[in-house]
Amino acid sequence: MRIALLAHLRYPIAPPFAGGLEAYCWHLAEGLTARGHDVVLFATGDSDPRFSLDPVSPVHHEKSFPGLEHRGDAGLRAHVDAAYAAALDRIGAGGFDVVHNNSLSRLPLERRRTDTVPTLTSLHAPPYDALRWFVHDSPSPHHRLTATSAAHLAAWWPDGAPPEASVLPNGVDPAAWPFGAEGDGSAAWSGRLTPVKGAHHAIAAARSAGLPLTLFGPIEEPDYWETAIRPLLGGSIRYGGHLAGSALAAELARASLFLFTPCWDEPFGLAAIEAMACGLPVAGFARGAAREVVGEGGCLVASEDAAALAGAIPAALAIPREIPRERVLRLFTRERWLDRCEALYAALRAGDASSPFPASRAAP
Fold first, then answer.
1. Rounded to whole angstroms, what are the CA distances from 106 to 110, 143, 159?
2. Which residues pair with 301 in a beta bridge?
3. Per the database record, which ranges form the Glycosyl transferase family domain (predicted)?
4. Distance CA 233, CA 59 (A)
5. Which residues are paired to 298 by β-bridges?
6. Which CATH superfamily is domain 174-330 in?
7. Domain 2-171+333-361 falls in which CATH fold?
8. SS in 3 state form for 171-239?
């Protein structure tokens, strides 16, 4: 198939990844290319040059419009809309069999676009007003949508999802996140350093439990870092930097526990399955899709309750490391994810509105 992959423009699609959405798009491009598809990545021009890249904008907009995401800035909105409109015109004329849209933009959802090239839109954020109406108005035989979990699907369609919408869980390559047979007694946390990811709660719980903790990830919000994280570092609490996948996997595999602290309705939780693949049981907050993702691989408590999180740490540490690893192998591998993407593309090309895998609509 000739596939157009349309990415979000906030960050480049290149390692080390700024977040789960960037990792998703990169692995999708890499995996589909390896399966023999003709893939063109529509992303920022500073994305990974190993792909066939059609630049939607020259650089990511945190570089050209720093700090303006989620601020309603008119200049950024006009810049992004113009870039996507031009890219969608190129896609429409490019002989593509299918578009996999990961942009979080309303423009690829327009019927004139989806009627031209069959489109799969993967939703990567909780519902928000700027996109909600366009998502709800968009399903058709030529446009299917996916959420990353049953909780995420229900958040977008609380009264029941249409037949064109289904659950497509994320996946990781187990070989890239190798199993560590034994931990060193420490905890790890990884993710974007921003309040909704809750690293400050992980620090409080680890200190209370007397557990060394290392944080990994990009500093997305400098004010949060300076006021809520940096002053708490020292002693058994350290920052390990923003690491590429192989280096992060090696660090995770050495730890004994992963702390997962979403303070928003996390649509999935890619960081958790990366750690689980390495054999780390999870102590975390039961928010968003956390229960679907973690399952028997951890112990979850109420969100933003650091004391309860500290209390869950001994029970999580008692979980054999094989259990979280096996859960990932059973439910969340990259090959399973790519298989389902290909099935969805085939259904779109056939104009089939029914789900090719109805069981995916339920929690694992």
1. 7, 13, 22
2. 285
3. 190-320
4. 33
5. 282
6. Glycogen Phosphorylase B; (3.40.50.2000)
7. Rossmann fold (3.40.50)
8. CECHHHCCCCCCCCCCEEEECCCCHHHCHHHHHHHHHHHCCCEEEECCCCCHHHHHHHHHHHCECCEEE
Instruction: Give the pLDDT score at 322.
Output: 98
DSSP, collapsed to helix, strand or coil, labels residue 85 as helix
C-alpha distances (whole Å) from 86 to each of 42, 102, 138 are 11, 16, 20
Look at residue 43 and give its three-state secondary structure: strand
Domains 2-171+333-361 and 174-330 share a fold: yes
CA distance 197 to 262: 5
Burial of residue 133, with CB atoms counted within 10 A of its CB: 0-12 exposed, 13-18 middle, 19 or more buried: exposed
Domain ranges of the chain: 2-171+333-361, 174-330
**pTM more than 0.70:** yes
- Whether the CB-CB separation of 199 and 229 falls below 8 Å is answered with yes
What are the φ and ψ backbone dihedral angles of 202, each rounded to 5 degrees? -60, -40
